[in-house]
Task: structure prediction
Amino acid sequence: MKILIISGTPWDNSNSFGNTFSNLFAGMKNVEIYNISCQNGLSNNNITFKEVQMSDKSVLKSILNPLYDPCWEVEKSNKEIDVNQALSVAAIKKRWTIFFIIRDLIWGIGRWKRSKVLKKLIFEHKPDIIYLPIYASPRMCNIQQYIIKKLGVPVVGHISDDVYNIPPNLSFLGKRYRIHLQKKLKKLINSCEYLEVFAQNMADEYSKKFDIPCFLIGKGVTQEKIASIPPLKKSTNKPLKIIYTGNISQDRYSILHLLGTTIDAHFKGKAVIDIYTQSILPEIMLCELESIDSIELKGAVSGEEVLKIQQSADFLLHAEGFSDKSIFETKMSFSTKIIDYMLSGVPILAVGPSEVNSIAVLQNFDLAAVISNPEDTKNILNDLLNGNVDFNKKRENIIDYLKTYRDLDTIQNGIYNRLSDTLNKQ
Result:
């Protein structure tokens, strides 16, 4: 079975897309995976058979030079890849609608459709089916819709976050842009045989909204990894160590600030929060966090170092914001980092609203100590720091949850069988 995956980022195991899709497809038998990436970057995986990339810069260059082919085939050994994505970076960091509109226009008039490299991948290798990660991006919808039309093969959709609903508090231009996006997404989703999603609430909502079958999947783990989850260890840290690793948004800053000030006020000397992040914080946030005695800012570390640091923790912190904007962004997603936390054997402290899928899962299956209401922070921290939370029971629950819902063979077999059944019906 030849499967084509059209992605917004390169297939690199160190990024979110690459990590997730390598987990879903690694070791799957009787498949050849082809990838078209609409951003340039290092190919770092052992999954793909052939990869083609194009980028904002190359598509813009094709407008200026009609003879220039904006696509290229990626060699696995190519370590020297130009990653100059000025427009992409500006659009992502600023979140200004005008940047996205300009980007869409460049791709709309660029000559990527004429690319010989792209045509070779599509027409010479002739994929049997398209497995489509779906993005909140008119540009990606246009590219994917074009390739779907050219290939004329069955399409399966993959959605990891809510891409369709309109976020709160958008500007007039932002709302118009999202309405424009909704029309494209509806057309794209209607071309799919079914959807695979990462959250049950998304499966429920999207199946009704688009009248399409939705199947729940997620990052899988092997039975060997589940069996090797370490037993709960007795802490030797004084004070107890709560570790947060990840990005810090405005909402996550608020949670870290809440926890730190609560510890300072009521549990001083009992716990410290170590924060490891690559985020560049505004000066006012930085000063506020540095003024809290129970918080230590550690800066950025590598992925390998993160794993070692997490093993030194008494509690690993997962945080989701309480604002309307944050709830909208995370309510239908599930952070794959939580699975890594479960496998570490270190107790989990989660803070966030129950409407958010990841918090709901941790709460409903009793996998973590959860603060779902900021007013409960003091009481839950008191139980946590005084040993009144039964983490041995939560460890048993984690093992049961992983065996039941995250078995890698079960997830991969489901993906493969659904793809095969779809092809057999044609």
Observations:
- The first helix runs from residue 16 to 25.
- The mean pLDDT is 92.
- DSSP finds 18 helices and 14 strands in the chain.
